[in-house]
Amino acid sequence: MEIVIKKCSSYNEQCEKSWFLQVKDFVQQVKTLKRQCNDYLKNKIEEIYTKYCNEINQTVCSYHSKVKAHQNMSKTERIFINKCLLPLHGHPKNKKMLNQLVESAKVLALKQVSERKKMFISFTVSQAL
Hints:
This protein has about 130 residues and is mainly alpha-helical. The protein has one domain (about 1-129). It has helices at about 1-85, 95-129. The longest helix is centred in the middle third of the chain and has 83 residues, at about 1-85. It is rod-shaped. The termini are far apart.
């Protein structure tokens, strides 16, 4: 009976060693899989982040260029109105000329406001899409 117990004990010990090795290999594979998944997700997140940052930067740059162009156009129109304003407009007999200049300045101001609204709306709509 002792021989059988020794053989069974030896067999049991071998099985335990084998099982421990298999568990160790499995844990190692799980760790490797976890590391690979983390690396993959990190790379994907960085890729998406850079993609959206580039798109946002392009949109911001285009919006800035549109605003700058609008500011330059508005500035030239204001300079034109200022050049039209002469000392003779201040004379009481030239009130009609001054009123015409004031009306053209009002029209210019309304035009600039509506253009800014259109530009802002087009920017917000393009962002929503």
